[in-house]
Amino acid sequence: EIVLTQSPGTLSLSPGERATLSCRARQSVSSKYLAWYQQTPGQAPRLLIYGTSSRATGIPDRFSGSGSGTDFTLTISRVEPEDFAVYYCQQYGSSPTFGGGTKVEMK
Amino acid sequence: QVHLVQSGAEVKKPGASVKVSCKATDYTFNNYDITWVRQAPGQGLEWMGWISPYNGKTKYAQKFQGRVTMTTETSTSTAYMELRSLISDDAAVYYCARKQTYYYDSSGYYVGWFDAWGQGTLVTVSS
Lengths: 107, 127
What we know:
The structure holds 2 protein chains of 2 kinds. Chain A contains no helices and 11 strands. Chain A is mainly β.
């Protein structure tokens, strides 16, 4: 099983600030197989990014993904009020796994 | 727009089984796998397995092997997930999601991201 570790656990930001979320894999992950999801309280997860850096349909361009090998990053260039949520990275190989999540909260 | 609508909340006793349904609309059901993910209260996401409506092929997470069965009914575009021998740790919200079948992996499965999700089904396990 590919273990994904996300950091920080919680990120406290003000609207307009930049958010940088990290996802580290214990073994190398193909960049084709890395996704990010956003989850707000009481809601299902929503796909943001797939293939490390491709935005899903309807996702604003303030969200971007990068990385390779064992280190991946989700960046929100300027956090909007609706972006306060929990973010999960995922590798979607033949046995998918999720990271533990990063909560982006309002400072 | 893709829609996945799940069945309602369930309350089960330990040792019982639960079967959750997931009805897909507004896309060709056979062209994408359906995957199941659960989330215990206050916890993260846990992948359980997937099924291909096209050929019925399944892949289950090792943790659930022997205790979960995923099926589909193509005539109604509905997927089902049955979990048996429930314990308190199975209390969670269960989500179905549409899985892209974008890459053919060396493991022999089509893999891809989860691009549409159901609203979730709360399963409570209590005596």
